[in-house]
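Exercise 3.2. Students should predict the tertiary structure of the chain below and write it as structure tokens, then compare their answer with the key that follows.

Predict this chain's 3D structure.
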Amino acid sequence: MKPSATQAFILIILGALWLLKSTALLPDTTTLLAILLAGAGAGLLLIDGITKSSVVTNPMLIYTGAALYLFDTSRLRLSHSLALGMILLGILMLIARSDHIPERRLKK
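Answer key:
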């Protein structure tokens, strides 16, 4: 039985991240986190489809990533981003109450 390649992959990934960070090609941590949050929201929306829970959580992930980036670049104050987030969350919760949006995606 061959040994697991997990350790080798971890070393390759950590080495690549270290190289990118030391050459200043890797974005700042906050920017990277914002990209990951927005990407996770978009990816989950594509995977899960439109359901009552995904119509609220996934756009909020995308908004959180965008708000974090805008706050980090000093384009949006924290109080403004929180207020906009509350408004968006309320709108998404009202949309999720619609009878046209299914409860859950049926498993096949």
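Discussion points: The radius of gyration is 19 Å. The CA atoms of residues 52 and 99 lie 9 Å apart.
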